[in-house]
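In line with agreed milestones, the collection of sequences with tokenised folds has grown. One record among many is set out beneath this paragraph:
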Amino acid sequence: MADFTLPELGENIAAGDVLRVLVNPGDTLAKDQPVLELETDKATIEVPSSVAGKIKDIKVKAGDKVKVGQAILSVEDGAAAPSPQAASAPQAPPAQPAAAPKPEPPKPEPVKAAPAPAAESPRPDNVVDISRGTRQAAEQQPSGEPSAPAAPSVRRMARELGVDIDEVAGSGDEGRISIEDVKAHAKRLISSGGAPSGAVAGPRAAAEPLPDFSKWGQIERQPMKGVRRKTAEHLGASWAQVPLVTQYDSADITGFEEIRKRHAKQAAAPGETAPPPLSVTALAVKIAAAALKAFPQFNVSIDMAAEEIIVKKYIHIGVAVDTDRGLLVPVVRDADTKTLLQLSAEISELAAKARARKLTLEEMQGATFSISNLGGIGGTSFTPLVNSPEVAILGISRGRMEPVYKDGQFIPRLMLPLSLSYDHRAIDGADGARFIRWVAEVFEQPFLLSLQT
């Protein structure tokens, strides 16, 4: 008998939600055969088996949350099972608890003074005494002790709020610490007058407790899973960390729309594939790639711990895609080296993979700048949130015909609303205004790209 346990799924991924179990008890399982379809914080993946044999028992079902190292199924004659010779060899019976000598009940002893905390427990409880407004001193963790049980996203939140993760009492299984535990700990410190160092000022430091909504009517609690949970955690941390500024502008894309319509009417030659349709998103990626070369301070990340600005010599642009599971952001790599038609084809392919749950983790990592185009849905403008550790994002809303005064008269022009959000720690307001004006001017005259690339 051998158990197949959930293997390591990738960097910073500790668990996932089971979407489908792809095998059944009694099936003969081969090595590397997919056994689960799993939704993680970043993508939907198929998990292959590392054992082979006849499946005896399946320990999970659709809807379960499973962690790395958790048993998924058991097989008979598995690859990890003992050899037949070992199985047939006589083995000593396992020790029975009943046969073990029972310890004698302790004899009453005189009451002694409690030993010092360091001798009592190497990992003391950390308690905030709100009534006295002071925090009990936390003992240093002895070398070799495991760190506090918390996911990377939880540790990041603790760092951003200036909270020592080893001082937080976890409410999960085996004391596992959640983001809510970190927020509650920071709130207790603030209320007791001992605000954590580096804590974000204002109401973002800790979430307010929710009221009991069932007092006013029927409610239903739905678990926040996979992509939605990761989006909430990541953007919550970004909002708490990034001093955000949004600059608005608009671009006259009447000329580009005429070119796009003419291109769409072009028929493919016999035996050739039709050219990919031009899209506003593809043009935006092309323009943004050129803009990042002209304004390299937008193609950076900030390392506050080292007090350094990390300047990236490559240009990878994330394109937000709306899916039935939430927002996914596949990455167009080396966008500055690709033609407009190549970008149109690649963006279309990535969007299709995102909606079909076929994106890999690698296809959603490494972006240096992001674009969110909501023009296909509607709206006149919006404030996109910076996808940290990037420092800027371009938002695009729906274009509409507007009267524009030109050459002594008002004429109808197709105007495209643009929104540029940026991290004010890296980018000054004047540079933000210059960047979005540069982008708008190139939207209006795309041939200027030939002068920039």
Residues 78-103, 105-146, 197-205 have pLDDT under 50 and may be disordered. The chain has three domains: 2-83, 124-137+148-206, 243-267+274-452. The radius of gyration is 29 Å.
